[in-house]
Each structure stands twice: as structure tokens, then as C-alpha cells.
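Pinned message: reference record for Copper resistance protein CopB
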Amino acid sequence: MSKHTVMMKHVLGALALTALPAMAQMDHGDMQMQGGQPPADARDPHAYSGGFTLDEGPYALPGPRQLTLADEHWFYGVLADRLERVDNGDDQALAYELEAWAGLDYDRAVVRAEGDIEQGRLAEASTELLWRHALTAFWNRELGVRYDTGHGPDQGWLAAGVSGLAPYWLELDATAYLGDDGQTALALEAEYELLLTQRLVLQPAIELTAYGSNDAERGQGRGLSDLVAGARLRYEFSRQFAPYVGWEWQAALGDRADQLREEDEATQENRWVAGVRFWF
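Predicted structure (C-alpha cells):
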């Protein structure tokens, strides 16, 4: 070892001994680990611009505005989450669940439609027109109207709810309704996508519906009324197109089950489904 190297080791050792008392006296109480709560304005596109805009500041371009940021563009999408053939052992039907939306990052207009087609006729249908507003990075607020046809007299509703992505990638949707004659309803839905491979996806889902009062004519029972649970296994030829097969169990609960028993109808039903899921 050279004399120069030995001298450098002594110098560095002395500096370290000098710095140790100061380091021991440092207050680490205000130090935080990486992560934690994001700032309240984390989703605000103007929060970190330093006061500059496209119209003012040293980077503003002369004449009419020439740039449009991503959060100022209009986007749209159409999702056919379910387009399937349903077989319960006795009868067969076609079922659909569609959603279309258009708007900006924070505010969008949404149309949701679902229903059943039996023997070439629309047997039951529900259509919603909603305004969706982003509350946080993963949650939305929804307000709008809904219109049901097919089971008893037609019925209109006012709708208010939240939807979003919970921890562990669980998709949740909760909507409260106020309908004709003061009827109320609550619909809860949860689903999860389990990637068995990059193309083979298992999607279990569960849906609960509750009503504020009995309406046998429309098939509504007070309290928890309907439960639907099942799973669909799809193969994604592309992210936009995937055929699937699945199984679903539907059960009537509480007062709704009593109504069906009085009509000598089954309170539970098993159904096999096969269909296609696509979006663009």
C-alpha cells in the first residue's frame, strides 16, 4: 500500500469521526418514506405549471392557440361487457349489457343498457343516462336517470351512485335509485379479473339488489330482493375482442322469494352462458 493511500485513509477516518456527533443529533421525525398520501391537487393539470399557461409566459405562442392538452380532448368508448346466449335448462334467451361514453377526463356522458331477448322479443330492459364526474384517480360519481321496461308497468328512476377501482383491483359499483310512487332501490355490484395467462381471464362477479317496499306487479320485494353470482372465462384474441363461457346462479330473497312461491315459481335458477365481449 502506498504512502499516499495510507494518508487518504487517515483523513477520511477523521472526517467520519467528526461527522458522527452531528449525525447523531439530527431529528428524523419529519422524514418520510417514499409513497404516502398524494397531494390534494395531484390530478390538477395546472397545479405544477409554475403559473405559466399556453396563453401567457415565455413559452406562449403568438396568434390563435395551437396546442390542445390531453385533458382538453374529447374521448369516447363503447363496451359490450356481455353479449351472450343464456340457457337455464328449460328456456334459452339472449342477454346484453352495453355501455357507451363520451367526454373529457373529469366529466363524461354515459349510456348503460342491459336486458333479455326471448323468442325474438325484448322481454326485459333497463336503460340509464348518467353524468360521470371523476372524484379521485380511481373513483367516479354518477348522477342521472334510469328507465325500466318489460316486467310489469314501465318505471322511471332518478339515479345517484359511485363506481371505481378498490385496492387489489376490485371493481365496485353502488347506485341508489328513487322511483315512481316513492319506491327506492339500491344496486351493488362487484367483479374481479383474474389473469390465468396473458390471454385467458376468469371474471367472477356478484350483484345484489334491494328495494324499499313491495311491488309484486314489478317483481320487487322489500329488503334484499335479488342475488346474482357467477363467473365467466374468456379468451382474449386481442384486448378488444374475447369470446367466453360461464355459469351464473340467480336467487330471489326475502319478500321477493315469498312472492314467487305464491305464484308457484322457482326462487333459484342456474344458467349456462356463452358469448363475446368487445370494446372500441
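Pinned by admin. Summary line: The domain at 75-279 is CATH 2.40.160.40 (Porin).
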